[in-house]
Amino acid sequence: xxxxxxxxxxxxxxxxxxxxxxxxxxxxxxxxxxxxxxxxxxxxxxxxxxxxxxxxxxxxxxxxxxxxxxxxxxxxxxxxxxxxxxxxxxxxxxxxxxxxxxxxxxxxxxxxxxxxxxxxxxxxxxxxxxxxxxxxxxxxxxxxxxxxxxxxxxxxxxxxxxxxxxxxxxxxxxxxxxxxxxxxxxxxxxxxxxxxxxxxxxxxxxxxxxxxxxxxxxxxxxxxxxxxxxxxxxxxxxxxxxxxxxxxxxxxxxxxxxxxxxxxxxxxxxxxxxxxxxxxxxxxxxxxxxxxxxxxxxxxxxxxxxxxxxxxxxxxxxxxxxxxxxxxxxxxxxxxxxxxxxxxxxxxxxxxxxxxxxxxxxxxxxxxxxxxxxxxxxxxxxxxxxxxxxxxxxxxxxxxxxxxxxxxxxxxxxxxxxxxxxxxxxxxxxxxxxxxxxxxxxxxxxxxxxxxxxxxxxxxxxxxxxxxxxxxxxxxxxxxxxxxxxxxxxxxxxxxxxxxxxxxxxxx
Length: 508
Description:
The protein is α+β, with helices and mostly antiparallel strands.
């Protein structure tokens, strides 16, 4: 049997991509090396992941947002007892919601996904796995990829359980990706400056450590009761995955960084990480593609990794499905790399900038003081919020209205629906606020790939029509009377040739 797509890795990125492909009717096989999907590091306290606005929008557009919200659990947020509600942080420096000026983003509208949310990684994976299986994906656990060979029309994958064959292979198998290495992808970037530690421990005297995040002359640590500690040791990353993590070692590092003779009586859980920032120089080699951490790695500062990977999967899924169907424009799959590589490069630089502020040096402390003052202004807080939340995210889709390349606003349509709900079929969307016969006719030519919605809205933001890709990005928008020929050219660009049976001349 040959599958349309094989996916290496059953983490959130691989599972979300499997759901996207099944939505388009593509046969999917997911190979996961780990036999057991459950792991302590996927659960609290270290398994919590913040979800950015683009990720929440992706979940909303696929009908998954309510399930994710339900998986949050009843725990109170960390800011519940603070006088001011923080909206996030940059290198540990918080910005507050009361200083963020939302008018800086004139094309955003309030909606179900216009919020902040955090979810336990294990809960998110379980939900996505259940959805993927219900949609018909085949998930095989305990089956790792060992080698890859490809021809002009297929990929042969050697696994720990024999050979499998697929028309395409997507490596979603993490920062140490076997697929990336087996297929010769170049991985380049900057080496680590520190070893980061996340530990859950028992302390003989818990009050010896100050609560919260603290920069010190030798590093940085964060402490939350009863024994959750994160710390950064600027050792060049030499300890990461090179030696066992013992109680004695962790205690020695903690004493040096915190500058206090704290004693650990037990080490319940510990892991290390670094600020290594690397990116594949191409996301595709023949019939093999990369997504998520297989394509880019960076420090977990700011929690951008999961969100970046979900964005990859949302961008890739519909393009790969259209390529398999045979109705994609010739270069559609190439736009996955051209659109997503710059986004990842921005995130890697965002991570590097935070590391620069964390270095235990007088110059970094001086720079931190300046950045802290800037964050405490309306302009500074708004800028940081736009980056951290992802509301300033724009893909380069060419010239046109400022909304082109941005997420479609979640208009409250007159029929009681929203674009997010209308995108759940996996088709594109032609929103027509003026019920133009020419646009209705245009949509009919691509009716297998494009849904037409003629409706008013509570607030149209001054727009008369928009063409939206299946991933929710605006491909075309106008405030004037829609030009059907202009819209048709954009539709050709993203949806390929129209169905032959529906090609009458467009009305003027």
